Structure formats: C-alpha cells, structure tokens
Amino acid sequence: MSRRCIDIGICGFEKVFESFCAKNPSTADVEHDKDKVRDKYTEILDVVGIDKELLRAKEKVTDIDGRTVKSGTYIFPEQSVDFCATVIHKYTSSDFKELRKANFDKVTIGEIVFLIGGFRIMLRDLGYSEEVVLKQYNAMERLMKYKLRLAIDELECQLCAIHKLAEECERRDISFNYYDKTYFIRYMAFKMAATKCYIESVYGSYTDIRSEELSEIAYDESPQMSTERINKEMIFFDALEHNDKYQRLLRQQEKLIAEDTFIKNKQKRFKEIKVELDKIREQYQTELFGKLLDEEEDDSLMIQHPIDVLKEAVVDTDLWIKDNAERDEAESAKNPEDIERENAERERIRQWLEEHGVNLSFDLPNTDEQEEEIFVQSGNLSLEVKGTIRLPCFCKKGQITAYKGIKGKCAIKCPNCGYYIIVDYDNMTAEPLELYGPVRRIGK
Predict the structure, then answer these.
(1) What whole-number distance in Å separates Cα of residue 172 and Cα of residue 181?
(2) Which of 85, 106, 297, 328 could tie 20 with a disulfide, CB 3.0–4.6 Å?
(3) 387 φ, ψ (degrees, to nearest 5)
C-alpha cells in the first residue's frame, strides 16, 4: 500500500488543511482549528455514504513532503487535495447544510455530481480495484438518489416544454385567432389527460409484474440462497452499470419503448439491441463468475432488468387498449336483439351459479368486501391466514389468499389473466368457470 501511495503522490491531512486555510484565510485573532476542520470532513464522509476505512492508511507511510502519516489516519492522493479542501470549504453552504441533514432532494444535482465524481476518482487513485470503486459509487449514488434525480429532472423539463408550447400558442396572433387558440390548447389538455391514463396503466402493469416476480423468488429461495443471489446481482449490475456501450444501448431501448409506433414498427430494432446487450452480459458473466451461466441459473441469478419489465408493461397496456377499442366497437354495433339475448344469457349463468351454491352475487366477483365485513364484525382485524388457493386459470400463475372466517363459494377473476374461477373456501379448492373474461392483466 505504501509503495503504491508514493507512486501516486500520497498526502496526509496536513496538506488538505493547508489548502483549506488558503481558501479561507483566518482573521488575526482566530486561527483555524485543525481538529474541527477534520471533524467537518469526517461528517461529510458519513453523510455521503462512503466507507471511511477505505480512505485511511493501512500502514505507516511517508507523504510527498517527507512527513510521516500514521496508520489509521486519513490519506489523500495529491490530485484530490483541492477537491477535499473544497468539500470542507462548502460545509456551511446552503447545499451542504441540506446535505448534512440528509435532505438530498434539496441539494442541487451539480453538487451531488461533484461529490460522487470526486470521491470516485479519489478511491481509484488510492489504488483500489474497479469492483471496490463501483461498490462505493453505487452506495453514494443510491443514497443521494442521483440517477433518480436525473430522471425526475428530465421529466420536469418535458413538462415545462409542454407548458411553454401552450404559452406560445396563447401569445400567437398570426394565423391563430381566439377560437384556434382555445381549441388547440383544449386539445393539448385532452392529450395530456390521455397520456396520464396511459402511463397509469403502464405503471399498474409494471408493479404487478415486478411484485409477482419478487413473490415467486421469495417463495422459492432460502435466506442463504437469497443473500448469495443478491450479492451476485450487486457485482453483476455494478459492472453493467458502468459499461458505456451497454448503458447507451439501454437508453436506445428506452427511447424506442416511449415512441407511439413501438408496438407496430420498433420491436424488431428492440430485439436487435437486446442481442447486443446479451453479448455484453455473457462477457461479464465469464469475467465475474468464470463461466457462462445456463438459462435456468441466469434466471435465478437476478430479477428481470427494468427495461424488460417496462417493455412487457407497455405491450400489455397496448393490448388492453386494443381489446377495449374492439370491445367498444362491438358494443356500439349491437342491436336490441343482441342486447336482449346477452341479458338472457347472464340470467342463465346467474341461475346456474345459485344452483351450485355460490353465495355471492356474480356482479361482485371477489370477496374483499365480504372478508372485511367478517373481520370487522368478529373484532379480528389481524387477518389470520387460512391458506392459499392456486387458481386453474389460463396463465397458471394465479393464486388467492383465504382468511379464517370465510366460507362457501364465490366466483372470482384471476388477477393475472382475467379468467373466471369458482372458489370453494370450505374445501380450499378452485375450478374453472366456463365464461370468457378479458385475457389480460387486471389493474387495481
């Protein structure tokens, strides 16, 4: 460690203190207290989430000025001295006051970039492996929500751009009269409302997919397997996260998914990019784990990448919109005879359910309200679980939780694929109901 430090130009805190004093000249009556200045530095290290032990000397070394730096004290690459002095200098700034309170949302994104970038370079120059540097980078980035902040800023920029466009339309006098402005801005409002509904649907589908995935992993894995998998995931994702080509390709996929023509025209390019991404993944699997993981092992290694979940959610939402459009079109084409025939069929189904002991109206195809009423009346609000019932549905993934106190039969829809099932809570069994429901994931 000492030889490497000399090669890169190692400094003790004395050098940082001198740089800090140069930036903050003391008055004639009061000199800077070195210990208090060092305490400020330590406090900032605690806040940003970096492992402080990585920044201490592992053994006694000699700095670039020939001074002895004791083992266990802070050390600094020569090129990071000014960075660390600046960090201490900013201690009382408005941004760093919020930083020290852990109010990261109130710290400007520029200061977060300054801190993460500076400490990352510092670790690298101290001779740590790329794996150690990436781990610390991730710890700081996630704690201060750096990438999330960037995404939110990008969204706010787009919303501001839409608002500015509306203002431009409002001010425009040439070829845009009063009624033109009114109708066009009203169109913008309707379009934004439709976009909001679409995003809500994608969000609902996304959370359903991820929740189901995480539930299956938690159900199948032991605590030891889960810990090992998470450790592997962190190493693997760290490597991919800092591969510029991999991130550039992911960004292209994000843009493709967000385009209106993605479902019809852009999925081919999406798949081509995925092939390139898989090649990079295989390269890192070989480097990190010494082999290519087979498909089953790769699936169990980690959850789906967010871009794949996002694609599935978008496709699901577009299919749902298409189904609804076709259903609405078919509904509008019905004549009175069709409607009368369907009403008669629904009545036949209702009678069939009653004959088979279903004690809940078919118009309420779930038991949430019934279960809640039972628990409220009994005073048992702890929701004791009776067991889980697997649903014999189209997707073969459906299941429901039954609580103690629920009895009888009821008709429900599978929360994943929408197929109707008859559930017998007395025998804890389920069987298909010969009805046709929408074959899609149902939202909340």
Answers:
(1) 8
(2) 85
(3) 160, 180
Surface-to-core class of residue 87, CB atoms within 10 Å of its CB (0-12 exposed, 13-18 middle, 19+ buried): buried
Strands 68-69, 385-390: parallel, antiparallel or unpaired by DSSP? unpaired
pLDDT in tens, 249-289: 888 877 777 776 766 677 778 788 888 888 888 887 777 77
The 10s digit of each residue's pLDDT in 7-18 is 468 899 999 999
**Among 128, 113, 130, 92, residue whose Cα is nearest residue 48:** 113
Residue 99 CB contacts under 8 Å (≥ 6 apart), including other chains: 44, 47, 48, 107, 111, 115
- Amino acid identity of residue 91, one-letter, is Y
Q: Give how far Cα 376 sits from Cα of 284, 381, 388, 401, 415, Å.
A: 54, 6, 21, 18, 25
Question: Among 270-274, 298-302, 333-337, which is the least confidently predicted range?
Answer: 298-302
Beta bridge partners of 387: 402
d(C-alpha 104, C-alpha 106), whole Å: 5
Q: CA-to-CA distance for 86 and 118, rounded, in angstroms?
A: 11
Is the model's pTM score more than 0.70? no
Whole-number Å distance between alpha carbons of 191 and 187: 6
Query: Which residues are bridge partners to 61 per DSSP?
Result: 69
Helix, strand, coil tally for the chain in percent (to 5)? 65, 10, 25
The residue whose two tokens read 């290519």 is: 292
Which residues does 337 contact at the CB level (< 8 Å), separation at least 6?
A: none
Let me know if 14 is exposed, middle or buried by CB neighbors in 10 A (0-12, 13-18, 19+).
middle
